[in-house]
Amino acid sequence: MKHIRNWGCKVKYILKFTIQRFWKIIENVLTLLGIILTVGECVLLMFNSNIIYTWMHDYVIWILGGCIIISFWKNKVYLNYEYFLKGTDVKINLQVSDVLNAKAAIVIPTNTTFDTKMEDEFISVSSVQGQFQKKYFANNIGTLDNLIEKGLEGYAYEKIDRTHSKDKKYPLGTVSKVTYAGKHYYFVAIADVNEYGKTVNTKFENVQIALEGLWSHLESRGHIENLAIPLLGTGRAGIKEASRKKVIQEIIFSFVASAKERKITENLQICIHPLDLEHKDLELDKLNEYLHYMCEYRYVDNNDKKEGVMIK
């Protein structure tokens, strides 16, 4: 059922933007027909031959069908874009997919106490963390807690007065690497929560801090492997300013700025969940333009003149 729903969202999005491009498709069809007619007129004038017109008359259905197919292809709605940072072998991929299905190390947004309890929706089953726990640790949350705790060894924390959840609070941007079934999962703290699991003190700056903390962690404790990241802060984190468009742009900007100083992956996969296609601010072709610009023009080699400032 989940897969059918995801595919339904993709089909709905494709149809929506194909309809919006209807007149552009008609324009392309007429342009192609005009080119063929122009060629026919040129052949008639230069060689006194009606061969093109005869050919058009005999195969009118095929020609019209071909023009329509080409026009639809030219205006195709894409759900996957990728570019290399100029002059490097580092690639950024913007794709519509469930991050948990990625064949890569996966980023899991979490809270600053690294709580995992799902009772009373402290961790929502609809969140990335909730889906991850349901998929792999439904009956052994204790094992996940131990893995997270191991990944937090050596990090400073603040002891807080809690009885119904964990009592160690870590700074925003803290990362715990969890290795499970031969795969790496990076739990990154993006929001404070109260003892009931409600997010507090939410700001867009949380996203920026979490990203910088993630890049820094990967530089010192990570591996050069493909990395898949969801749209941080757009769901249960409750960050008001974190629209999906803004978060995608921030991930791209932050990664490009970081890549000037260090190499942490050769393939960053920014995963937009199919359900996110329902939101009005998501126009993938516009985000593709931003991604292309950042990869082609904003990334500058360390040996060249620097542009931009890495987020601290």
Automatic annotation (TrEMBL):
Record key words, sorted: Membrane, Transmembrane, Transmembrane helix
A Pfam family annotated for this UniProt entry: ThsA_Macro
Domain Thoeris protein ThsA Macro: 92-273
Highest taxon above the source species: Bacteria
InterPro entries xref list: Macro_dom-like, ThsA_Macro
Entry's transmembrane regions: 25-46, 52-73
Name recorded for this polypeptide: Thoeris protein ThsA Macro domain-containing protein
Gene source species: Oliverpabstia intestinalis
Lineage: Bacteria, Bacillati, Bacillota, Clostridia, Lachnospirales
